[in-house]
Fold this sequence. Notes:
12 helices; alpha/beta; Rossmann fold; 6-stranded parallel sheet
Amino acid sequence: MIENNTYSIVYCTPALYMAGGVERVLTLKANYFVEHFGYDITIILTEGKDKPLYYPLSDKVKVINLDINFEELWTCSFCKKILLYLQKQYQFKKKLTAELVRIRPDITVSLLRREINFITKIKDGSKKIGELHVNRANYRNFEAGESNFVKRLFSKFWMRSLVMHLKELDRFVVLTEEDKLNWKELEHVDVIPDPLAFQTDMVSQLNSKRVIAVGRYVYQKGFDLLLRAWAKVERKRSDWEIVIYGQGNREPYENLIDQLGLDRSRCHLYGPTNDIMREYLNSSIFVFSSRFEGFGMVLIEAMACGLPCVSFDCPCGPKDIISDQQDGLLVPNGDINKMADKLTGLMTHSNDIERMSKAALKKAESYSIDTISQRWKKMFDTLM
């Protein structure tokens, strides 16, 4: 059913050919908006010309690729990179301005990439919204060991410039109440979390003594911390196993398993799977070990399958999603001993697993695409 107050909306994002969280969420929202609200949606890209879209997009959604190819910068020397960036940014501004003036949308949404530097200066008549999918502290974050004085100095300058541009937006949207508090300079911040990407009527039977974790094999996800915690867990609960699924280089974590002397028959590192729902359903506890997050959608996915979640209380996301002792457990960020204690305790009390499972299912309902889309619609209606 199409609802009243239909709008023309343009989204600006680099690409849709990759299997990323931002790409998945944007595709999900765009499809819902055109099918249920009757919005006229256009997505403007700069990368991936002639590459197929990774996630299925409704035929009603228009896609325009400006073919700027900022990705060319990845292979350039530092000096050439600066000159080429300036050329491409000028080209991008010129082409995006022409498209927005031609389309004349009611609303333009920037996913806070390169267009945020100039989008509020484009006089196309549209309301301008910024949409952030990471938390402030880790926006333009450098991996551990990569940061240096010059990069830190640039980061401070860049953040000051970003805040100036954000002040010019009509609305700025972040994913969590926790992160909203980090933007004290801004008075026009809304909180709208990402929607759950799938729906299921199936629920874990909670009869498998298996803990599951999901994420990329990178420093951010804290799987090194998780394995160290698991070394303590397996000494007390030898009847349980842990599995991790994700993309990336597993070798450092495989080496850590050997260093810790973990039982490989009960500790498994896997690559990505095309059916993560099945893996949730075959588990009884979800564990989340990230050092930091933008949100933590895998927590919602696990809850939707009836799994209680044990999570580090990292910035930002878990605190917004998990109600401690009700639908999951929060652990002081990075505290390996407490993580081990919470996991062991939950494994020992099956009644707590069942109780939290029921609460987790209810919590997941509040992140359905129907519910989250209504929050976007309300904001659009208020703006217009």
